[in-house]
């Protein structure tokens, strides 16, 4: 997968369009689309995108297949995709069950995301 595909796939897993992602990091969506054909983002831009998507910049650049990000930043549960739940979250060292995950998502639905 190239940079654009990783950004596209990850942003959609987080419920964000490319336009919404671009707006959040202060660039145009056309900039991201250019990475589909050519060019590469500068380090500061890729780090902003990685932070917004809560993944590592190495993952977006293809240097790693692990999407885990720097854990010094808190994880925003709104952006945890169902398939990432087990690799990103636990409670007291135990995996979060499907039933509990549905409860967590129901609680989050009561607090609208600020997009």
UniProtKB/TrEMBL annotation:
Limits of the HTH cro/C1-type domain: 13-60
Q: Which InterPro entries match?
A: Cro/C1-type_HTH, Lambda_DNA-bd_dom_sf
Q: Which SUPFAM superfamilies match?
A: lambda repressor-like DNA-binding domains (SSF47413)
Coiled-coil regions, chain positions: none
Q: Which Pfam families match?
A: HTH_3 (PF01381)
Q: Name one GO molecular function term.
A: DNA binding
Entry protein name: Predicted transcriptional regulator
């Amino acid at each position: 997968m190239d940079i654009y595909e990783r950004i596209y796939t990850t942003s959609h897993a987080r419920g964000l369009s490319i336009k919404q992602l671009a707006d959040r990091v202060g660039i145009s969506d056309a900039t991201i689309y250019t990475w589909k054909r050519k060019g590469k983002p500068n380090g500061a831009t890729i780090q902003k995108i990685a932070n917004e998507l809560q993944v590592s910049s190495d993952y977006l650049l293809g240097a790693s297949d692990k999407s885990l990000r720097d854990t010094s930043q808190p994880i925003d549960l709104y952006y945890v995709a169902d398939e990432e739940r087990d690799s990103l979250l636990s409670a007291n060292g135990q995996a979060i069950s499907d039933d509990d995950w549905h409860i967590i998502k129901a609680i989050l639905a009561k607090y609208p995301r600020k997009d």
